[in-house]
Amino acid sequence: MNFAQQTKVLNLCPPAALVDNASLTITELDTLGYDYAVIELILGATDIACSAMILTDGDTSGSGHANITASNFNGQLEADGTTAALPSATDDNGIFRWELDLTKRKRYIDATITVGDGTVGGYYVVRAELFRAKETPSSITNRGLSGLIRI
């Protein structure tokens, strides 16, 4: 089995109505059984910047979370050494990514993403992909997929 077949994909914040002057409703990520994760904020059309974008982790689902050091897109250093910035009103169709070594994290990961107050707001999706499974997912559904074609 190849590496791509040992992953799980999750839609933490599906595409929905416009979001304006509010926080996104994001499903908490349970990382049990995986050693690495990628979480992405995918923007559609937007007319306003985000005002907060940070990850938290905790040992218990739903409570006791604390900010993950260096996960704040407001001023932290990016992987290439430049200073990270929150998504702006001109970042339409942009992708912002966190890459996490889960061996250094608590089990549950959540994101706080808040959209500023624009004229209409914007469209947002948050997805996650878990890697390096301790046990390979046994079905398409266990991999978080609704369908799969392997060519």
Description:
The protein is an all-beta fold. It has a single domain, classed as Jelly Rolls (Sandwich). It is 0% helix and 40% strand. It has no helices and nine strands. The strands form two sheets. Strands 2, 3, 5, 6 and 8 form a five-stranded antiparallel sheet that branches. Strands 1-9-4-7 form a four-stranded antiparallel sheet, with no helix packed on it. The radius of gyration is 16 Å and the shape is globular.
Order of helices and strands: EEEEEEEEE
- CATH domain class name: Mainly Beta
Overall morphology: globular
Q: What's the number of extended β-strand segments?
A: 9
- Which blocks of ≥5 consecutive residues have pLDDT under 50? none
**Named CATH architecture:** Sandwich
Q: N-to-C terminal Cα separation, in Å?
A: 14 Å
Count of helix runs: 0
Characterize the main sheet. Answer: 5 strands, antiparallel
**Number of domain units:** 1
Look at the structure and give the mean pLDDT: 90
**Share of residues in helices:** under 10%
How big a fraction of the residues is strand? 35-45%
CATH topology: Jelly Rolls
Radius of gyration: 16 Å
Oligomer: single chain
